[in-house]
Amino acid sequence: MLASIPSPSNPYLDLGPIHLRYYGLLIALGVVVATRIAAIRWKAKGHDPEEVMNVVVVTVIAGIIGARLYHVITDYQRFEHHWLRAFEIWKGGLSIWGAVIFGALAVAVMCRVRHYDTLGMMDAMAPGVAVAQAIGRFGNWFNQELFGKPTTLPWAVEIDLRHRPRGYEQYSTFHPTFLYESLYCLALFGVLVWAERRFRFRRGQTIAAYVVLYTFGRFFIETFLRIDPANKLLGWRVNSWVSLVLFLLGIAWFVWAGRRPEPERTPPTEPVAARN
C-alpha cells in the first residue's frame, strides 16, 4: 500500500521552449474522447456521425466560456482589483456547472438551426461528457487544487505547502477529491449505458439521468469533503445548493421525459457518402 499519492511538482509539459499546461491538455483530451463516444452513439441511432462535429465545436466554445464565467461570478472576490486574472483559464477555474448550462444551450441552438433531434443529441452526448469529466479532473491533480479534508488514508494526496488553504498549513495529505470524482464519473458512464438499454429510456431520459446521478455524487463531495475557499449560502457552499437544485430538476425532467409521447419517427439522415 502506498503511504500517499504524490502530486506532480510541475503543472507543465515542457517541449523545449513550449510549455503546455496538463490542465488544458487533459480538458482537450476529454473533449476528443467525448466527441468520439457521442459520434458512435449518434451513428447507432441511425444518424450521420458528422452531425456531432457540427454541434460540438460551438458547444465546446460555449462550454468553456460558461465554465469560466460561472467561476468568476461565484468566486468574484478572487478577481477584485485583478480583473485580468479572469482570462487566465490555463491556471484552473473552470466550473462544470457553467460548462453544462452554456453547453446545453449551445446544443439546443445548434440542433434547432440544423434541424437535428435536440434531446436525442443530448442523450448521445451525456455518457461521453461523464468520461470527459473523469479525464479532466486529473488536471486538478497537476494544479494541486480542489482537494478535500486532511486525511492519512493510504490513497491521500500530498499537497505542497504553497497550495494548502489557510488554516490547513500543518497538514500535508488530503482527500484526493479529483480521484473520487473521476472514478465516480467513470462509473456513471457505465451506469448510463447499461440503464438506457436495460430500461429502454425514452428521448431525454439519458441526459436527465446524467444530471441526477452526477449532482448526487457532486453534492456529497462539495458538502462534506471540499475545503477550498468558496462562497456559502445558509451554511452550504454555493455549489452544494446548485447540485441540490439541479438534482431535483433532473428528477422532474426524467419523469417528464418518461411520460412525454414519442414523436413520429422520421427517416434518418443519410450519410453523405451513401448519397454519392
3D structure, described in words:
The protein has 276 residues and is mostly helical. It has a domain at 12-192. The chain has 9 helices and 6 strands, in the order E-E-H-H-H-H-H-E-E-H-H-E-E-H-H. It has helices at residues 22-44, 50-74, 96-114, 118-136, 138-143, 177-198, 205-224, 238-259, 272-275; strands at 12-15, 18-21, 157-158, 173-174, 232-233, 236-237. A two-stranded antiparallel sheet has the order 1-2. It has a two-stranded antiparallel ribbon with strand order 3-4. Strand 5 and strand 6 (236-237) form a beta hairpin. Helix 1 packs across helix 2, helix 3 (96-114) packs antiparallel against helix 4 (118-136) and helix 6 packs antiparallel against helix 7 (205-224). The radius of gyration is 20 Å and the shape is globular. The protein starts with 11 loop residues before the first strand and ends with a helix.
Q: How widely separated are the two ends?
A: 59 Å
How many helices? 9
Counting helices, strands and paired strands, the structural category is mainly alpha
Unreliable residue runs:
272-276
Radius of gyration: 20 Å
User: Strands across the major sheet, in which order?
Assistant: 1-2
Describe the largest sheet: 2 strands, antiparallel
Order of helices and strands: EEHHHHHEEHHEEHH
Strand percentage, roughly?
A: 5-15%
Give the overall average pLDDT.
89
What's the overall geometry? Answer: globular
Number of strands: 6
